[in-house]
UniProtKB/TrEMBL annotation:
Transmembrane feature ranges: 12-29
Cellular compartments per GO CC: cytosol; late endosome
FAD dependent oxidoreductase domain span: 12-392
InterPro entries reported in the protein's UniProt record: FAD-dep_OxRdtase, FAD/NAD-bd_sf
Key word Metal-binding present: no
Keyword match Transmembrane: yes
UniProt entry keywords in alphabetical sequence: Membrane, Transmembrane, Transmembrane helix
Basic and acidic residues: bias regions: 112-125
Protein name: FAD dependent oxidoreductase
Organism: Hyaloscypha bicolor E
Amino acid sequence: MAEPQSQQQRNIVIVGGGIIGCTTAYFLARHPLFNPSLHKITIIEAQSIASGASGKAGGLLALWAYPACIVPLSFKLHAELAKEHNGAERWGYRTLHVGSIRAKGKVYGSDVKGEEKGGGEEWQKLPKTKNRGKTLASIPKDLDWFDQDCIKGYSEMGTPETTAQVHPYLFTTSIFQLAAEAGVQITYGSVTAIDSFDNGVKGVTYEEKETRHIKTLPASDVVLAAGPWTSHVFPEAPIDAIRAHSVVIKADVSPWAVFTEIDLPRDFGRKVEVGEKKRRHALNVNPEMYARPDGTVYACGEGDTDVPLPKTSNLVVCDDDRCQDITDYISSISTPLRTGDVLIKQACYLPHVSSGGGPLIGETGIRGLWMASGHTCWGIQNSCATGKLMSEFIFEGEAKSAIIETLDPRRFL
Ligand SMILES: Cc1cc2nc3c(=O)[nH]c(=O)nc-3n(C[C@H](O)[C@H](O)[C@H](O)COP(=O)(O)OP(=O)(O)OC[C@H]3O[C@@H](n4cnc5c(N)ncnc54)[C@H](O)[C@@H]3O)c2cc1C
C-alpha cells in the first residue's frame, strides 16, 4: 500500500514573503501532520518580508468583508493568534468601532486651483452605494477628530464584535518570525520559473538576491503567494495589479476606523502632470482612515494604473502628489490630521483576479503547484484562513475548515 502523502518526504516552497506566504508557512509548520524530519518548508522572497502591500496596507479586519466563505474563519483565527502570541503588543491587534461619514471639505490655505473629476481606479472595500443614502444620525461622542461643521451624515459600520485591526507590517513580520521559530527557512531571491516534470512540479529556478546567480530549489510542492507578481512567476495566473498610495500621520486620536464620502469645494487642490496627461482632482473622494494604537492615523485613497507593476517591490514608484492629495482630503475635514506631521508616504500594488471574485486558493491542475493569490483589498483580513486552508490542502489533500469551491483556481485558469 502507498504511504499517505503526509508520511512522505516533502519539500514545500512558498513563493513570496507577504502576508499570504507567511501565514501559509506558519499554519503549515503548526499543522498536526507537519513532521520536521520529513518536511522542509522554505519561503523564497525576492526582496524582504512584507515589502509589498502586506507592509503598507491599512489592516482593517471585518466580519462583513468578502468573500463570505472564508471571512468568519479568518476573523476568528486573527483573534486566536492575537490571544496566543500577545498580538495586542506585538502587532497592534485590537477590536474597534467603524463608522462612515459624509462630509463637506474645506480649503485651508491652498494656493492652487482645483478642477473637475477624474484620475482614480475603484478598489475600495465598499461598493460606492454603501456610503450613500444613509439616515443622518448623530456622530458618536468619542469620534471627535472631525470638524463638526463639516459632517453631513454618519452611519455605524462595525462594532468591536464585528471589526478589529492589526498593524500589517508588524503582523506579517511577527508571523514570519513565529514560522521561522517552528522550523520554516527563508531564501532571498526572485523566482523566474516553476520547473515541472511529467505534469508535476520538481522545483523553482530563481535569481539569488545578493549574487544574482541563477539557482534552483527542488520542491515537491510550490505555493504561488507572490501577490500581484504571481503572474510574473506563473503567466497563466489571472492576477492583475492596481497601485495605491497611503500616508501615516502623527495624531493620537480615539480608536476608530472611518470610511468617508467627502465633497470638496470646486477651488480645491491642484492639477497634476502625469506623463503627457493632466490628472484632475475628483470633487467627491473616499479616503479611508484607521487610527492606530501607536498614536498615528493611516489613510489611503483611490487606486491608479498610471505605472505598471515593476519587477520587484523595491522599484515601486511613490508619487508624492498622490500622497499629498490624500493628506489634503483628510485635512479638509479634520483638525488633528491637518496639524499632525506626515510620517510616511508610500505606494504598493494590490493583487486582484482579472475577472473579479477570488482570492484563488487551492490546486492549479499541475501536481504539486498550489495558488494562494488575488486577495484584493481584504488580504490582511483573509490571510489567516488562507494559510490554514493551504496547510490543509497540502497535508490532508483538501480544505477542511471552510467550503471554498468558489475560490478554486482551476475555475479561473
Ligand atoms: C492601500 C491598501 C490598503 C489596504 N488595506 C487593507 C485592509 O485594511 N485590510 C485588508 O484586509 N487588506 C488590505 N489591503 C489588501 C492587502 O494589503 C493585500 O491583499 C495583501 O497584502 C496581499 O498580500 P500578498 O502576500 O498576496 O501580496 P504581497 O504583500 O504583495 O506580497 C507578495 C510578496 O512576493 C514577493 N515576490 C514577488 N515576486 C517574487 C518572485 N518572483 N520571487 C519571490 N518573491 C516574490 C514580493 O517581494 C512580496 O514580498 C490593502 C491594500 C492596499 C494597497
